[in-house]
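Quick illustration, no need to memorize.
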Amino acid sequence: MELILIRHAKAFERDAAAWPDDSRRPLTEDGRDQFARFAKRLRHVASEVELVESSGFVRAWQTAMLLEEHARWPKAARLERLEIHADTESPDPVVRRQAERVQEESLMRTLAALAAVPVVAWVGHEPMLSRLASLLLTGSSGGMAIDFRKGAALSLQVDIDTDAVAPRTASNGASGGTVLRAQIKWFLTPGVVRRLAK
């Protein structure tokens, strides 16, 4: 299967006065315009997307709506597992890492369950997207650094081996007997697409 990970487009900076609930923080007008142009180009790179799932946070959801409108991808369904949770932003590194592991394992199980869908797109947030990509590519969520810019899209070819004999671990699979591995197909940022269009 192909998994396309998309980081939400440029949003307003955090501002507790304007958005006491950070999940309500929207895209900027410039972020919407840039991503709309990017999504039109993305339609030519990935036209066969069958399922789009998104964080329900406003900035991610607006990004998914732009993909529907300009890339002509399917309407997004909310996937709460893609959302930022308080513990994943904890100042305590032990609490934060444990929360990240739980989220990573949950997403790996979800991905394994979607094995029959040829092309899936997930719209979400950093650092979760780059950690998930690293986990799929290297077997460790900290195995490689990925500069996942706002509005970028990373396509991974994911091999889901359901016949493997492996213990359930965050480093090698979604559950006992399922191993997920990936290769990079392509990685695009709005800046690269702008330069190619000139």
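The longest strand covers residues 179-188.
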